[in-house]
Amino acid sequence: MLAICIGLAGCGGSAGGGSKGDLAAKSCDVYAKGQLGDKPYQLDLAALATSMKDQGDGSMLLTAPIVIEPGLTAESKQSLECQVRFTEGKELPDVIKMQFIW
Q: Within a domain: residue 15?
């Protein structure tokens, strides 16, 4: 059983995803929840994770579509841009900047 666990990515990880993209997407999701308060939203974390691009200054940029208040009369389809920076010793990166683009 131990051999199976060792072979699986993310085994025992507390962030739920093992790749840097997954960790960055999780940080962006947590930050978006804080920005949107009680508003419901839909964000494809897998798409956000795979969009990660190095910005050349030590930060990474992630982008994905986001739907705020899906199914309601106030529904808004936007793009989310999230810039993060990984810091040694921290599991999740810090969100440097987030933009909701109409």
A: no
Which CATH number do you get for residue 94?
3.10.450.630
**Above 50 in pLDDT, residue 2?**
no
Residue 9 lies in a domain: no
Cβ atoms of residues 58 and 46 within 8 Å: no
- The predicted model scores a pTM of 0.80
SS3 content of the chain, % helix, strand, coil (to 5): 30, 30, 40
Count: domains in the chain: 1
Tokens of 22: 């997954």
Residue 8 pLDDT: 31
